[in-house]
Hints:
disordered N terminus; 18% helix; alpha+beta; single chain
Amino acid sequence: xxxxxxxxxxxxxxxxxxxxxALLLMCSGPALAAAMQSAKxxxxxxxxxxxxxxxxxxxxxxxxxxxxGLLYAASFRDIESGREWIARSxxxxxxxxxxxxxxxxxxxxxxxxxxxxxxxxxxxxxxxLKAERMxxxxxxFPNARGVVLQLVSTGGGSNGDGATRAAEAAPTGIxxxxxxxxxxxxxxxxxxxxxxxxxxxxxxQVTLLxxxxxxxxxxxxxxxxxxxxxxxxxxxGNLFFLEDTLKSSxxxxxxxxxxxxxxxxxxxxxxxxxxxxQGVHCTFAGHGIEPAGGAxxxxxxxxxxxxxxxxxxxxxxxxxxxRPYDPRRDAMFLSNTWGDRSRDLRINADFMAKEVEAGARLxxxxxxxxxxxxxxxxxxxxxGSGGAWNGFxxxxxxxxxxxxxRFPVGLDPLVRQAAGKGMRFGLWFAPDSSNDFANWERDxxxxxxxHRTNGIDYFKIDGVxxxxxxxxxxxxxxxxxxLTETKGKVVFDLDVxxxxxxxxxxMMDVGPVFIENxxxxxxxxxxxxTLRNLWKLTQYLDPVRLRVEFLNNARNAALxxxxxxxxxxxxxxxxxxxxxxxxxLGWFELSNLPPAFVDETAKLVAAWKQHRxxxxxxxxxxxxxxxxGVAWTGFVSAGKQGGYVLVFRGVGGAPEWTEKLPMFxxxxxxxxxxxxxxxxxxxxxxxxxSLPDAPGFLWVRVQGRP
Length: 706
């Protein structure tokens, strides 16, 4: 079984045959050794001659030497800059599984397919090299600056790591000649093994945290200037980058996997970097393959230029291949009833009819009912104890039908009412985690019924407990079935506030990440804190993939008395502005909002909708300082002809601010104010802003002059 992603073979194969996609170009054995095989899709290409595999597009080209059925990294060329990143072919094979398959044939079968291979992802070229007990899978998108890899193994090998490493001598204080590095032995569980052509490098580990009910600071960076006297750096994570400090160009490694704490198969480390000879040696590890075999986690190595801005652009562009921005589906302003803490106590047909009317006045795109629409009672219910938080089908076979007491004629009248106001509808849902999501087919069938029969397009996914490889596979099957059969129309918000869940990079194709639950009732919401999380995460995640909340700041003002950063100190428009460069979440009961809140916010929402598609078509970069309630901060969305700038002034500091914007340095630009109070000028790539209010914000459009 060799699914493109965990558990995807039945859907992917069916899609391939349905669309007329065929396996191309198969060869094996010495009789065809001299024949060059190739595949092409748009600007993507692959070449194979049994001794070397080359894959590239207009941006990058990678090559692997092939020996004994194993791959050795031989070249990584950044075509745009002309740079070759690899100094010499690797001594160790990679990808390589921890449990090396016994009896693996050295003969490899080459095949390819192209087009749109997943229900939501961009079209691409996919190449496979298949041996008897191991398959290498490569995917390249025309617009991405790297090649996606995945190893599929049937297992059958030893569980030992098989690694031979040079002994690390402790420092004695006696100065000697430079240490010699021992020859590399067999490598265990390798994703990449690279001898890189860079003498002065900064290696950075990015640590992300989820389970935001217990964490608020979600992003940390640890960096090392690699040096021959320092032992190798060995760290865990999903995201790393190595940058040439002299040229501001680098490589990004991204593993499409849950965060380390949430992986069913733990790894001692995910990345190792050391100074070797006149360059740097990097190893990336952790396929996440069980001893019995299976599909490993996908990963990609991306090239970038232009320092931080170029790195952000490379990461966002890649994520928009896995899940392209669709203006008919993504970055919708979604409201959810849970944020005002009445939980499920007010949920009924009459209340939701008022929510729809209020949502139309505010400009909401999607009305979503959280926990409380369904017949079954959960452990979070306000109706007393005894509810379920798992095993829903066993708890109540009718758990996932609309509550007939609260909605005597079902949800259809509300969905039609919303549609008549130009809005769509969403529901809260918790797939059954029991027995490794054994009920995934039942869960997916229920969501498909809600979509087809009731017109529900958006689902907030909560309660997930993905604690094993089997649960990962079945959870992915659940999402894949719904996305495939709805042709990507359904959107899932993946809640990462608690428990063991796919996280930021585990299942990037299914929808936005629901970042946090914050409430004024418990004195845990500050606008600058939520803005800080968005600002810091945007350096690594495409912000359209982030569901970011703002609250009704008229509630619980007494709990923030004398606090200069209290929610009530911010205008309603400011609160919405903190979410505009992401997927906004109105975390409140719409019918409970003060009229002044609605009037002010609705004007900005209307302007945002006019520019939303253009805004999310650009690369979004955080500017200024990380938000702390005091500093100047903001975002830029940069496209080919201009873009947008959103600036926030904190409670301290001067009313004027200057910031270099290298993405706008090439020409002169006109600046038009779209929201907020103040003025701005952009000259020679330098932004000058004046804001009279503190706290205050300014949103402007930047257009290139002819």
